Amino acid sequence: MESLEEAIKKNTIPEHVAIIMDGNGRWAKKQGLDRIFGHRYAIASVRECTEAAAEIGVKFLTLYTFSTENWNRSKTEVDALMTLLVDTIEKETDVLHKNNVKLLVIGDMERLPGKAKNKLNGCIAKTAQNTGLSLILALSYSSRWEILNAVKNISSDIKGGKIKQEEVTEDLFSNYLTTKNIPDPDLLIRTSGELRISNFLLWQIAYSEFYFTKVLWPEFRKNDFYEAIADFQKRERRFGK
Which residue of 84, 168, 192, 225 pairs with 22 in a disulfide if CB–CB is 3.0 to 4.6 A? Predict the structure, then answer.
């Protein structure tokens, strides 16, 4: 009997998969642990999905890691998340580089603590020439922030004479987003059973396929990722036609 990975058709692999990694807190609560333990256990899920995506030929994997709204969580949790981010980048940079994975970040990096920014920039620089999977972390990110930021920058460039108002098209607008040079997601996965988008890549997912699973993110493994890909491959994409 063939495995799920073997059943995936290699000619219809989504180029870009985005994941809303949800359920860390609920998983921790089920175990009788503090929320931060859910985030710690979730690192294995990130590693497995990155490996699975690279193995089947996905070119871009975007993970909704920390939203602008997450800054409103308790200082204890935010500080713990930032420490976890620094520790993880420190441990995984060499692994990513060895596996030809390129790290990218989208979001308002200026809000991140200096140490986190430095570690991320170091990893981005070290993996910049890699040609395999592009792993994109959405950090201090929200789609409304991104769209408003794009509007402000376009307005400024019109006022400064760099562009004319009539030159503003969908393509030009996309070039003002943090995802410029990254194709729109073919598939958006959300874990934990919640059925919402949570302010994630709203412009970019206009024609994405959605896949919702009740699996909590810390329990999400390669087979769960393959199931989402297999489900995607059964669909007929029309792009509004």
Answer: 192
**What radius of gyration, in Å, describes the C-alpha atoms of the chain?**
18
What confidence category does residue 4 fall into, taking pLDDT thresholds of 50, 70 and 90? Answer: confident
Question: How far is 18 from 215, CA to CA, in rounded Å?
Answer: 16
Report the mean per-residue pLDDT for the chain.
Answer: 95
Query: Quick check: 241 pLDDT over 80?
Result: no
Q: Report the percentage of the chain scoring pLDDT > 70.
A: 99
Whether 22 is catalytic is yes
The question of whether 130 is a catalytic residue gets the answer no
Whole-prediction pTM: 0.95
Domains within the chain, CATH numbers bracketed = 11-142+184-233 (3.40.1180.10)
The three-state DSSP-derived secondary structure of 139-191 is EEECHHHHHHHHHHHHHHHHHCCCCCHHHCCHHHHHCCCCCCCCCCCCEEEEC
Indicate which residue of 34, 70, 130, 184 is catalytic.
Answer: 70
pLDDT tens track for 125-174: 999 999 999 999 999 999 999 999 999 999 999 999 999 999 999 999 99
Q: Where are the beta strands (DSSP E) in the chain?
A: 16-20, 60-67, 102-106, 134-141, 187-190, 209-212
Residues 6+ apart with CB under 8 A from 140: 66, 67, 68, 71, 107, 108, 109, 111, 112
Catalytic residue from among 22, 24, 186, 224: 22
Q: Are 46 and 32 in contact (CB under 8 A)?
A: no
